[in-house]
User: Fold these one by one.
Assistant:
Number 1:
Amino acid sequence: MKITSLQQVLQTNTYPGRGIVLGRSEDGNYAVSAYFIMGRSENSRNRIFVEDGAGIRTQAFDPSKMVDPSLIIYAPVRVLKDLTIVTNGDQTDTVYSLMQAGKTFEESLRTREFEPDAPNFTPRISGIMDLSNHSFSYGLSILKSADGDPASCQRYTFHYENPRAGIGHFIHTYQCDGNPLPSFEGEPKKVSISGDIDAFTEMLWNSLNADNKVSLFVRYIDLKTKETQTRIVNKNQ
């Protein structure tokens, strides 16, 4: 698969929705994860990311304007020992709890399906990074309706072992803007990852559509020491 410019992908798509990037830094020393949210409604845009222990959660920027917290208030990132779980909904908690009980990433997600937000039926996208046993691998998953048919759930999981330096994979909820919003199709995009955490964060944030972007999370984990660096950018300050 051809390596794509993540900057170009984002700059040419006004509404990819929510997106997950997992990969390895250009120097090979870090496991890289990123998660962003976008919004078209006032309720969706009224959010920020805040740190929550080793993970993060969404929070209303102005609680007085929060209309419906379902589907938009959740913990996108949780950490379970050497596992980092990143998702676009409350399935983060599902994966965390069931993997803690001994289930696999795929088994945990079999208990869930796409979001019940007709007519979009937003896909649930999920990622996991595994730094156990002195190794590094990651996986990405998408649960989506069959071309907008809520009677059929399609489940796809992709695994990447010993990922190459400077390479990542990007999955997002929507192909592009629309009414209804068309679900992501195909394999996660193979993208290049370059620069340190600050350069990578700046590139991502500046590449997202200025009107629709809401919040961004980026984390670099040192593969030898397991030390983490985290950046959070919120449009609402």
Number 2:
Amino acid sequence: MNRRKFLARTAMAASSWSLVQAITPAADSVPLDYRICAFEKFLQDLSYDQLADTIADLGFVGIEATVRKKGHVLPERVEEDLPKLVEALKKRNLEVTTMASDVLSPTQPLTEKVLRTAAGLGIKSYRMGYYRYDLGQPIVKQLGEIRPKLQELAAFNRELGLGAIYQNHSGAKFVGATIWDLHWLLKDIPADQIGSAFDIRHATVEAGLSWPVLYNVIKPHIRTVFVKDFQWQDKKAVNVPLGTGQVDPAFFALLKRDGFAGPYSLHVEYHPPGGAPAYIDALRRDLGVLKKWLHGEA
């Protein structure tokens, strides 16, 4: 090899290494411990103390608490019951990582009571309810009507020191399913006032192989990642244990590359038969899969 070819190849190798370094964080910047909470939807039959003991024994940092209609804390009893749940969790060094609510605007009858109570207890994040499209009406017009509601809610969140997150679902009637509509709604709102709870399961249902595009679009807004899996069965998206369906572990490599450390909320939606004990076993199993994916062991 002559000197000119040698220098050219050396320059090319250096350029390639620089590109790898640019998109890959240094090893010491990648967190080894991630903030992972459990969605408690199917453990609501447990007392608050039993729930706290279970979540601590499983190794989560906290829960995504249901403070909504038919939730573990009913909105009309939030001032009485939410402090009890928070206290039970604190005894096991756990937190309400986020709060699943029915909140869509500050003008709903119970919104102010729910959010002020949560803020007073040190809860920093809550999941909103969902806007739905009327498919018989112009979609763009409906988005224009939703946007002022979000701006009003963002201002109220700022006042209380709270942050809302909006989860993307799959299905034609759900606002946010395509992600592009959600990006447009949130683009002028600070993410710490209203951000995205990015659900990779629903994004994969909607986008198939192009889920990385949806992630890229909503990435500046992401505050929380929701984790679950599905398979296609008879043209329906059916929930399955994590790692046995269509969700690509490469998504978690992208999150690691981008320095996202959480929180992650693990959702077990596939209804394992056997009640709470079976659900607890499913949480344990899926948490093990998620940890492997987060540490690049997929």
